[in-house]
Amino acid sequence: MLDSLARLGRIGIGVLERLGRGHLLLLGMLRGVTDLLPRPGLLIKQIYSVGVLSILIISVSGLFVGMVLGLQGYYILSQFGAEQTLGVMVAASLVRELGPVVAALLFAGRAGSALTAEIGLMKATEQLSGLEMMAVDPVRRVLTPRFFAGFISMPLLAALFSALGVIGGYFVGVGLLGVDDGAFWAQMQAKIDLHEDVFNGAIKSVVFGLVCTWIALFQGFDAIPTSEGVSRATTRTVVHSSLAVLGLDFILTALMFGD
Amino acid sequence: MMESADNQEPLVRIRDLRFSRGNRVIFDGVDIDIPRGKVTAIMGPSGTGKTTLLKLIGGQLRPSSGTIHVDGQNIHRLGNRDLYKLRMRMGMLFQSGALLTDISVFENVAYPLNEHTDLPPSMIRKLVLLKLEAVGLRGARDLMPSELSGGMARRVALARAMVLDPMMIMYDEPFTGQDPISMGVLVELIRSLNDASRLSSIIVSHDVHETAAIADLIYVISNGKVIESGPPESMMDSKSAWTRQFMQGLADGPVPFHYPAAELADDLLEGAC
Fold it and tell me: For the ABC transporter domain, which residue ranges apply (chain B) (predicted)?
């Protein structure tokens, strides 16, 4: 009994320690922005590897998700003779929910896992220690540019996802199923609210970008410096990021749209 | 800073150093003086915490108790800014080389200069080429670290460690896994760089012959303590059976060849029943 209590206590202390280290790392990365401003090249390079290289998977996924929404939406709406509102349905689903959430899940899988593996391997091959001994702070020099790159890229990727999703929905709804072209866009224009829908969706994607990148970098930085340790850290990144995105999505949705 | 001007003062002074990892005691009251301008070797079997000692000297780890003074400054009492300032005068050669894998050899060596100086690119180029020339790899400047052999990677890392003209260089197992030619080149380089650049060198190693060939002073550590120290010649003929066994690589001595176990006959018979 006492043993299991002690074990529980140790696990609790371990979790709190990791949380503490994670928050200290976040603070260090935020402070590192002063080093980043005079050297925008570091940020641009990371935006390329974190953001630009994720464009393909985000674009293709967005297009297909939009096409599926168009199909499913059409069959349901047409039962009520409301297929003219397909544009609203597709756009609202994407901008409010699917854009930020699915883009964040894909971002965690594509860019987050790559970040964790990269930082974990830099740790395992003593590159981070090497930087410290060269009097270069690895948090400011290596982690901060990656953190802000993720933070900036994620909302843009979510916007791209939603935009291509709408095009996918249009292609299926108007192009294949015969929904009226004018009604598709006009209804969307009339019903989608800039603040209520677009702005709230953007806030979600900013939060998800911050959380996913933070988790990915912390897992890499805190990884046990062996091949098994890095592999576990990469898995943890995807699992923790996905759970965090889904949990936060519920909280944010409740705060934004709940009465 | 007053002490730094006093050349009689050892460059690194370690007193009553204690360090543990969990329940395992790594150092239990270690005293070491690293003199200026000399090559000092810290030797001992694998797992005695030699690399840990370098990390303690570099301020990357904190001791449980005891002090480490580097150039007169207690390294674990320094703030981040002063610690980084001191580290600019300390070079370290990691066992793996620890080169940044996404940039070329030239950029790796130029890295500390780009980070810490405002020198114009033409001056940085000259300095980098001179350091690469010193390690014989000027022609490899455009290669990526993945294209280098282990020995070449360590020489590039050595050029990088020297590029800010530090007062000391710490070598972590520089000879491990090297072929005889690379080994010979490294042994020669470490000694000649130490003398030509008036450095102080600390080599952590268990390669007895190579290290003894270039060291001025050897500390042998085991079980968390300094067993013996002195010039290489005296260590070979040491009165301590342990030191003799280690330095001469003898199978028989105070350190047993076999891990503690039951009698072989008993063990075998047990399986037969």
Answer: 12-248
In a 13 Å sphere around the CA of A201, the CA atoms on its Cβ side amount to: 27
Residue A128 has what pLDDT?
93
Measure in Å the smallest separation between the Cα of A228 and chain B Cα atoms: 19
A143, B179, B204 from B210: Cα distances, Å: 39, 13, 12
Give me the helix-helix angle, A99-107 and A144-170, nearest 10°. Answer: 130
- The residues of chain A scoring below 50 in pLDDT are none
pTM: 0.86
Domain ranges of chain A: 2-257
Optimal mutation site among A49, A119, A125, A133, interface B, most CBs of chain B within 10 A: A133
Q: Give A208-219 pLDDT, tens digit per residue.
A: 999 999 999 999
pLDDT value of position A252: 94
Determine, for residues A135 and B55 on separate chains, whether the beta-carbon distance falls below 8 Å.
Answer: no
Give the per-residue pLDDT at B1.
40
| Structure ipTM | 0.83
So what's the pLDDT on residue B272?
67
B183, B122 contact by CB (below 8 A): no
Cα–Cα distances in Å, from A95 out to A195, A199, A248, B268? 11, 9, 16, 72
Q: Where are the alpha helices (DSSP H) in B50-140?
A: 50-57, 80-87, 105-116, 121-134
The nearest alpha carbon in chain A to B111 belongs to A134
Q: Are strands B200-205 and B39-43 parallel, antiparallel or unpaired?
A: parallel
B87–A132 C-beta distance less than 8 A: yes
Other CB atoms within 10 Å distance of the CB of residue B163: 24
Q: Residue B19 belongs to what domain range?
A: 1-89+169-180+200-250
Tens digits of residue pLDDT in A24-69: 999 999 999 998 888 899 999 999 999 999 999 999 999 999 999 9
B88·A135 Cβ contact <8 A:
yes
Q: Verify whether the Cβ–Cβ distance A137 to B84 is below 8 Å.
A: yes
> Is B85 domain-assigned?
yes
User: Cα(A39)–Cα(B102) distance, rounded to whole angstroms?
Assistant: 18
Cβ-based contacts under 8 A for chains A and B: 51
Q: Where residue B221 sits, what CATH number does that domain have?
A: 3.40.50.300
pLDDT digits (tens, 9 = 90+) for B221-269: 888 888 888 888 888 777 787 787 777 777 777 776 677 788 888 888 8
Q: How far is A130 from chain B (nearest CA, A)?
A: 6
